[in-house]
Each structure stands twice: as C-alpha cells, then as structure tokens.
Amino acid sequence: MAGKQLRILACGDVEGRFGQLFKRVSSIQKKSGDFDMLLCVGDFFGISAGARTEWQQYQEGEKRAPIATYVLGANKPEHLEFYGDEDGGELCENITYLGRKGVFTGASGLQVVYLSGVEDGEGGCCFSKTDVTALCESLISKNFKGVDILLTSPWPRGVTNFGNSADGGAPPEGSVTVAEIAKILRPRYHFSGLEGVFYERLPYRNHRVLAEGDKHVTRFLALAKVGNPEKKKYLYAFNLTPLTHMDQSELVKQPHDVTECPYKFDQSRQNQPAEDDEDTGPQYRYDLSGGAHGQGRKRGHHGGDRGQGEKKPRPPPKPTGPCWFCLASPEVEKHLVVSVGDHTYLALAKGGLVPDHVLILPIGHYQSMVEATAEVHEEIEKYKSALRRMFHARGKECVFYERNFKTQHLQIQVVPVPSDVSDEVKEVFEEQSQMKNLELAELPKHTDLKQVVPSGAPYFYLELHNGDKFLHRIRKFFPLQFGREVLASSPLLDMSDRADWRNCKASKEEETETAKTFRKAFQGFDFNLM
C-alpha cells in the first residue's frame, strides 16, 4: 500500500537569519518544485537588534515564510520571550512552534516526534528523563514499529559508534537521554543541531542480526548553522513516504552501507529467542531512569550513567594451559613472526596453504573476536587493510576467516587468492556449505560480531575482499579444516593435497626464509613502520 511521498526540508540553527534561510528555500523551490514542510532544529531565534527587527516584520505580516515551517522550543533562557506562554502554536503566518515535547501527525499520516530544549538546562528550556519516559509511553503500543522523524536540538550520545567519524575531530558529548529516545522510538530520520557542523551518519539498523526480525534503518543528520562562513550544509532535502503507508518488505530493506546500532540494546533481551517484526507491547517500554516496564527487569547503566569514575580496561585473560600463540609464551615460534603492533601481530601460518598464508593474532590471550577488546579489533582492521593493499598490488585478493571452535587463541587466517578467481569465492563457499549441511548466513557489511554472537559461543566467520561477511553458528559438528578445504578445492586454488596443514610442514630453516621474504615484501605496507 504505497502512500504519497512527501518532500521535506530540514534545517539547522537559524539564529534569527530568517531572510537568508527563506531566500534559500525559495530558490530551491523555484528550481525543484514546492516542498511540503520545513523542520528546524537548534536555535531558531537570535537576540541581536537586527534579528529582533526582522522577526517583528514576520509577526506583523510584512514578510511571510514561503513554506510551512515547524520549529523547536528554546534552548537558552534569552530565547523564551519569543515563544510566549503557550506550549505550541502558530508564532506567525506559516511558522509554527511544535511545543516542548510531543508528536505532530499530519493528514498524510507522517509522524514527527519532537523534544525541545537541552538536557540539564535552565527552567523553561530543558527536558528531563521523566518527560521523555512519558513521551515514549504515549507512543508505544502493541503494533508499534517506529516513527518517521525525530527532532531534537542536542545530539544523541555515542551516535558515531560503529559509524563514520564527524568532521573536525571528536564528536560532541551529546545527550544520554536523546540516545535513549532514539533507541526506543526507532525514527527513520533523526535531526539535531546546536554544534555548528554538518554530519550525515551512515544508516544504522534497529535490530540484532540473526536474533530479531528485520526492522527499518535510522538515518541521523546533524545540520550546521544558517549562513555559516565555512559554508557547511545547513539545509537537507529528502523524500519520505509515511511509515504507516509502506509495505513491510519495502520498509525494512537494508542499504549496503548499514551499520550496527550505535546505542546499546537492552541486555535483558540479549538471550531471548528471535521475535516477530512487530513489537508486542509492554516489554518494549523503557523507564529512562533505569528500569524496564512490563517484565520487572532491571536495566544496566550505559554511556554516561556508569557511576563514579571510569573503569580501567581489563587485562586479557590468562590461558588455561600452554598457548602456542600468546607472544610472550615460550611455546610461540617467533621465527614465523613478520610484524608486531601494539596489541596484535602478524605471523606466517605453520604449514600454510600457500607461501604467503598468514595469521593475524592478538599479543595477549583472547579466544575470539567476540572476546577481544576494541583496541585489538582496531589493530586487526589495520592489518587487514594493509594486507588487502599488498596482495592487491600483486594481483591477489584476501580471504579472511576465523574458527572459534576447539581453539583457545584468536586466529584470523589470511589466505590470498588470484584476483581472477576472487569473485568465485562466495559461490564456492556457499556450495561447499550446502554439501556439508552447514548454514552460512550472510551478514550486513558493517556487522559487529559482538552484536550477533553471544560470548563463548562457537562459530565460523568468513570475510571476503569486497567486505562481504558470512557466519555459521557451530552446534555440535564442524569440520575443522573447512575454510582451508574450500580454498584448496579445484574451483579456487586447486591444491587439494594441501588441504590438511599437517601435510605441508617445512623445516625451520625453510620457514625462516619464507618469513624473511614476506617481511621484506610487507615493509612498504606495515603501518607499524610508518
């Protein structure tokens, strides 16, 4: 049931530059046709004499906004005078103050949730967790799917997690409460202002992959100030069909660049079975002060609510017995090591499938990617990137895989294949999986394994040169050499006699020479030497 597609403009802080904003809007409409509405976040008013005079012209009808304009409330005490005593209403022709908090629903069915002010601000221009809890509970029902648009002036805390970085360095601290409302209400678009920058985050998913049914994605955008000298983007145009008029299959389509949700999911649901696409009422209601309604479950504190002081990062766990891969262990074969970073290292595989088959390993003892720290993850990605570049320059592409089953130390196997067969790797792995009755599920490219796999669960993970990712959840049986056997098969490397590493042993002298050759070739790509 496709409904009418609305044409919408969103704007950052106007700060009283009404003429500049509406001139730009008129120019856009002249070129592209009329838009249905303009939504403004951040500071709409300015307090300079010029801004006050211009606003008076709009109030008295001398000037008129060229589009239906909806604005948030004051973020500063000095702006309260422009709003009057009413909680929402028309400020002048074509300019409407939405109110302190609530939902604006148009005739089209579009749902715009708005939250005015800042957290912990002064009276009249701030919001509390109680306000937000009441707002969420008024919206969430048995068949709640989400909302179309969320307008807040502050950024949500942690919005850049798993996503692209904000320009100009570190992102603003943001509001924990805004992050909570975004997580709960699942807006399709979320706009913020106040920080004077433009930031368009990669879309993020609102469900846990393989643990819940697909839900629509959220796109977060922070908009700059009108008329900023750096010419950062302050006006954003988009088309949107209201959620209530969309087919479910169309609504939940996942774009290729989707990432994990930047806000933590409620841990009380982490081990529950997969659910239907529609929420089922009370267990999805949250109390932003820390409790969950409906089931009597307690929620852990996230983000800025961790309590007194920062927790020190935990040291890696100690192995239960001798470990061949902990770099400080006497058992490790150091002649195979070709590069060492701060948290990880690179070593030739013993009995490698091909001469340049290598392993990425953590220096400390971590069993799997799910258990590894953020620092380990980050450095592993650096090694992956360096290896991709090195092998691509040699006419090869990387295949990465990890088997967290009957192992005690994380090993990322890296096997290069000729570029002319690299596009066949996916198909061959899928065929071999079917033959062995293994379910190899494709994951969205930006998936974080920690969101998908519980701690301690066995799995096989595959990543291709183009970023395609696959996961098999190991139940009871799994062929230990599966990844190697597939790559050794005739459609790919065609060396089935080397499928078992024990058949590929070399002398220590040969291994040392091979490591020396690889180390020299890798030097130009090794980030530790740059």
Q: Could you explain the architecture of this structure?
A:
- With 530 residues, the chain is of the alpha/beta class.
- It starts with 5 loop residues before the first strand and ends in an 8-residue tail after the last helix.
- About 8% of the residues have low confidence.
As laid out across the biggest beta sheet, the strand order is 16-17-18-20-19-22-23-21
State mean pLDDT (0 to 100 scale).
86
Q: How would you sum up the major sheet?
A: 8 strands, antiparallel
Q: Could you tell me the number of beta strands?
A: 23
Q: What is the assembly state of the chains in this entry?
A: single chain
> How far apart, in Å, are the first and last alpha carbons?
56 Å
- The helix-and-strand class reads alpha/beta
Write down the overall geometry.
elongated
The value of Rg in angstroms is 27 Å
Roughly how much helix do the residues carry, as a percent range? 10-25%
Q: Which key terms come to mind for this protein?
A:
530 residues
Secondary structure topology:
Elements: E1 6-11, H1 18-32, E2 37-40, H2 49-59, E3 69-71, E4 89-92, E5 95-97, E6 101-105, E7 111-115, E8 118-119, E9 126-127, H3 129-139, E10 147-152, H4 176-185, E11 187-192, E12 199-200, E13 204-205, E14 217-222, E15 235-240, H5 248-251, E16 337-340, E17 344-348, E18 358-362, H6 374-393, E19 396-404, E20 412-418, H7 419-422, H8 425-435, E21 441-443, H9 449-452, E22 459-463, E23 469-473, H10 482-488, H11 508-522
Parallel strand pairs: 1-2, 2-3, 3-5, 7-10, 8-9, 10-11, 11-14
Antiparallel strand pairs: 1-15, 4-5, 6-7, 12-14, 13-14, 16-17, 17-18, 18-20, 19-20, 19-22, 21-23, 22-23
